[in-house]
From TrEMBL:
The lineage of its organism: Bacteria, Bacillati, Actinomycetota, Actinomycetes, Micromonosporales. Gene3D superfamilies: Peptidase S8/S53 domain. This is Peptidase S8. Keywords: Hydrolase, Membrane, Protease, Serine protease, Transmembrane, Transmembrane helix. GO terms for biological process: proteolysis. It comes from Micromonospora craterilacus.
Length: 799
């Protein structure tokens, strides 16, 4: 019998066995808690709008190595039994691999290709180092090889790996071409590392007795291998992508043990090949078919990516357990006949065909990688615009602004567009910001960055498709029987009843998740025509909304039945936030449509109609770095809208009570009317973001009710929601009342803002330490000018 298949006798003394069991439980607990806890910290920081902690994962993974190593090192050195020593050594090796691979999470998630390349290189290097050191870990002997033809065990391992991959092919979606290739290389490297640690020399130490006892090999060896796979899986993938591996990968250790029992009876041993194939294919699923940025609490409220990742993980666990049981029963019995190689090859081929058929049929075929947002150096000169009051003067300015923006973009983008066409790189030009969105990865980004006309290149987030549409949100609150509390608090109902002003003659533009155009509170206010609705996400031709956010905000601005501030104002809509994550290009699509609406399928550069632009824009969204925006990404857009006489109202954000939390564009910009939130007692809410902006500018500008605000929801229902998103459309509605009362004020943004500030009423800044005025540089950075007062503002406008 060859040396690498010698047996090692008993499992060891009872005390050593107990110590090994406790060390294994400790390793599992530390790994699961640290990985899930680290991801949760990442998500809390993201939802809270706080800066990402670059050192979080390096520190956490190094701490994990120390905690696991403290328990594994004595097992590796002290016991006399070889099986216990090897157990401690392989767990220690797995913990070290986790620590090294975890350091790579310091790379920002937005640079996913760079992370995958680093993971492939690092895991490959670790495999080489481990290969050199395995004779000390496992003892002397040769690992065995598969030869020119794959063995039965290797073919069955491929079948098992494809079975683990199947749920991800069905429910996930690939990224870009380079991203997918790098994910494959990284998965292969991680699989190779697992193969080195779990090769034949590892398994021989669990062949207790002579002849060996396959059942004990599968049970004991499978448990030890499962811990190793847990540690390796914990290091593979950015924050979030490793979580499915913690669940689905460890049970595969029992299948690998059964494959070794089969391999031992084979004349052509497979060595480390089974573990490499099974683990590599199992890791490829989460790495390639999910974007770690989308495994986020930001998308957890609906049946979005986190839901489907959980479903795929559960399916993977079921498959792994089924494989462990089936392989254990079929392959580990001493009397079992070894499957024929042809049968094993047919099984692997059948699963390969199944994976391909599912991916093309039931899955989401194609590549769905991120795009690049290319900002050019030259932006349009918008000085010296024609003066004029009222709607006619605003329309004249908007037309001139539109023409200058288009001319600048056409001229300065010509050479770059020609090169992109030559290279067959799909691209979309923009003019509101002189920019293009371009398909391409790091190589294209490097080429674009070197071009003289390019100022900078950002990543434009692109959400991957879902296996089924997310459910439509609804509301179960009863319809109001009169003006809601927030309408009464700002005096909008008095404007209707005492001043006879309801917003007629003014149009409000809503850029959000959409609007349910059939809702009874909103149907009558839709402006209509072929240029009042744009859905760049789903291509719908009539106003629709699945998430409910946009319907709610539009209802607070112009809804009828007591929920909207300006119930007789008209509205137009655009979808820029269909699944609660956007991109610079998605936001720009809608802002550009608002400056110069165009018909369905029309060219924004040639078919825009600036005379049809809404007078006021309500924007209950922000573009954080995770979506690709930098602080100045949308600044040219708001500058142009300001020059055109279109008032941009934007939410301050829900990242309070921290000072300096008005961060995400467009809220920090000086030409944007930024709105914070108060509750029904006129107190600034804890979640309302505080200033100052990064430029030092005092923000927010005004406050409005934003806690427990009742408004419309898709399907005709109503719901009460919280957020500065809810406060923002009420200020837009107040401006609609002002301009409806005095149309010659339309487009006079400075005067409008001055009236709003001068007529605002005081609010309570709160009594928490974070809310003290001196902490944030003054009351203006907490509450702005105060609570908007519709009655006083309209009265001042008329006088």
């Amino acid at each position: 019998m060859r040396a690498d298949y010698s047996t090692s006798g008993s499992v060891g003394s009872p005390w050593a066995v107990v110590a090994a069991v406790l060390a294994g439980c400790w390793a599992v607990a530390v790994t699961v808690l640290s990985q899930s806890g680290g991801w949760l910290v990442d998500q809390v920081l993201l939802v809270g709008g706080l800066d990402r902690l670059v050192l979080l994962w390096p520190v956490l993974c190094l701490l994990t190595v120390l905690l696991i190593g403290t328990a594994a090192l004595p097992l590796a050195l002290i016991p006399r039994t070889a099986a216990i020593r090897v157990t401690g050594r392989v767990w220690l090796a797995g913990a070290l691999a986790l620590g090294v691979l975890g350091l790579l999470r310091a790379i920002p998630p937005v640079h996913h290709e760079a992370y995958l390349a680093a993971l492939a290189a690092t895991a490959g290097l670790l495999a080489l180092v481990a290969d050199r050191l395995t004779h000390r870990v496992f003892g002397p002997g040769r690992p065995g090889g598969a030869g020119p033809r794959p063995s039965v065990a290797a073919l069955l391992a491929v079948a098992a790996g494809l079975a683990l991959l199947l749920p991800w092919v069905w429910l996930g979606a690939l990224g870009g071409l380079l991203e997918t290739v790098l994910a494959g290389l990284a998965a292969a490297a991680v699989g190779t590392l697992a193969g080195v640690l779990l090769d034949a020399r590892f398994w021989r130490h669990f062949e207790f007795g002579e002849p060996p006892r396959p059942a004990r090999l599968v049970l004991v060896g499978g448990l030890v291998a499962g811990v190793v796979l847990l540690l390796i899986g914990a290091g593979a993938g950015q924050s979030g992508a490793q979580l499915p591996l913690l669940v689905a990968l460890p049970p595969a250790g029992f299948a690998l043990a059964a494959l070794h029992a089969l391999n031992r009876r084979s004349a052509r041993p497979a060595g480390r090949t089974p573990a490499a194939w099974l683990v590599g294919l199992g890791v490829f699923g989460p790495l390639a078919y999910t974007d770690p940025e989308e495994i986020s609490l930001l998308l957890a409220g609906t049946r979005d990516v986190p839901f489907w990742v959980a479903v795929a993980t559960g399916a993977g666990l079921v498959v792994a357990v089924a494989l462990a049981i089936a392989y254990g029963l079929l392959l580990a019995r001493p009397s079992a006949r070894s499957p024929r190689r042809a049968m094993a090859a047919a099984t692997a081929l059948a699963l390969l065909v199944t994976v391909g058929a599912v991916g093309v049929g039931a899955g989401q075929p194609g590549l769905h990688g991120e795009r690049l947002f290319v900002v050019l150096r030259q932006q349009a000169d918008l000085t010296g615009l024609p003066a004029g009051a009222g709607k006619a003067g605003r329309d004249a300015r908007a037309g001139e602004v539109y023409q200058r923006l288009v001319d600048t973009a056409e001229r300065s983008q010509a050479d770059l567009r020609r090169e992109l066409r030559r290279l067959r790189l799909d691209h979309t030009p923009y003019y509101l910001v002189n920019a293009l969105e371009v398909d391409g990865g790091p190589a294209v980004r490097a080429w674009l960055t070197r071009r003289p006309e390019v100022a900078r290149v950002l990543v434009s987030q692109r959400l991957r498709p879902l296996p089924a549409p997310a459910g439509t949100a609804g509301g179960n609150a009863p319809a109001p029987t009169g003006p809601t509390w927030n309408i009464t608090m700002i005096g909008a109902d008095r404007v209707w009843s005492e001043l006879g002003v309801t917003g007629a003659g003014v149009t409000v533009g809503s850029s959000d998740s959409g609007v349910d155009g059939r809702h009874p509170a909103l149907a009558g206010g839709f402006r209509g025509g072929d240029d009042s609705w744009f859905d760049p996400w789903n291509g719908t031709r009539t106003p629709t909304d699945r998430s409910g956010h946009g319907t709610h905000t539009a209802g607070s601005a112009v809804g009828r039945g007591g929920i909207g501030v300006a119930p007789d104002a008209q509205w137009v809509g655009c979808v820029n936030l269909d699944r609660n994550l956007g991109s610079p290009a998605a936001y720009l699509d809608c802002l550009q449509f608002m400056l110069a609406p165009f018909p369905p399928g029309g060219d924004p550069f040639t078919e825009g109609r600036p005379a049809r632009a809404p007078e006021i824009l309500t924007n209950s969204w922000g573009c954080p770095p995770i979506e690709g925006c930098d602080p100045q990404a949308l600044r040219p857009a708001t500058d142009a809208l300001e020059a055109a006489g279109i008032l941009v109202v934007a939410a301050a954000g829900n990242t309070g009570p921290f000072c300096g939390s008005v961060q995400d564009p467009p809220a920090p910009y000086p030409d944007v009317l930024t709105v914070g939130a108060v509750d029904d007692r006129r107190r600034v809410t804890d979640f309302s973001s505080r200033g100052p902006a990064s430029s030092g500018l005092a923000k927010p500008d005004l406050m409005a009710p934003g806690a427990d605000v009742l408004s419309a929801m898709p399907g005709g229902g109503y719901a009460a929601l919280d957020g500065t998103s809810m406060a923002t459309p009420q200020v837009a509605g107040v401006v609609a009342l002002m301009w409806s009362a005095r149309p010659e004020l339309i487009g006079d943004l400075d005067r409008t803002r001055r009236i709003l500030r001068e007529t605002a009423t005081p609010v309570q800044a709160g009594d928490r330490a974070q809310n003290r005025a001196d902490d944030c540089g003054g009351t203006g950075n907490i509450a702005g000018a105060g609570l908007v007062d519709a009655y006083a503002a309209v009265g001042a406008t008329r006088s």
